[in-house]
Amino acid sequence: MAGRTPIRTINSALIAMIADEDTVTGFLLAGVGNVDLRRKTNYLIVDSKTTVKQIEDAFKDFTSREDVAVVLLSQYVSFSNDGDTVCQSFYKNW
């Protein structure tokens, strides 16, 4: 809408992503990616070598950041190979 005035904010809010490479790449192409001055990104690319501990650490980091408004956890990431959900692990250890 060309006539709309943009909403002014002091700080912009980010979407953080914990997802497979294809999902993260799509969001990055859409302009959602961010790298701050400390070279910290707003995404974690999960593959078969990524441990549950790394996913948990990224989730805790994203939820503690002031500039992150939404944490996107893809369905691909939410289930581990043993059938247990990563989300259940979050709630047990959080």
UniProtKB/TrEMBL annotation:
Q: Which InterPro entries match?
A: ATPase_V1-cplx_f_g_su, ATPase_V1_fsu_sf
Q: Which Gene3D superfamilies match?
A: ATPase, V1 complex, subunit F
One Gene Ontology term, aspect cellular component: membrane
UniProt keyword annotations, A-Z: Hydrogen ion transport, Ion transport, Transport
| UniProt keyword annotation of Chloroplast present | no
MF term (GO), any: proton-transporting ATPase activity, rotational mechanism
**Which parts of the chain span the membrane according to its record?**
none
Record's family?
Answer: Belongs to the V-ATPase F subunit family.
- This protein is called what? OLC1v1007159C2
Identify the species of origin.
Answer: Oldenlandia corymbosa var. corymbosa
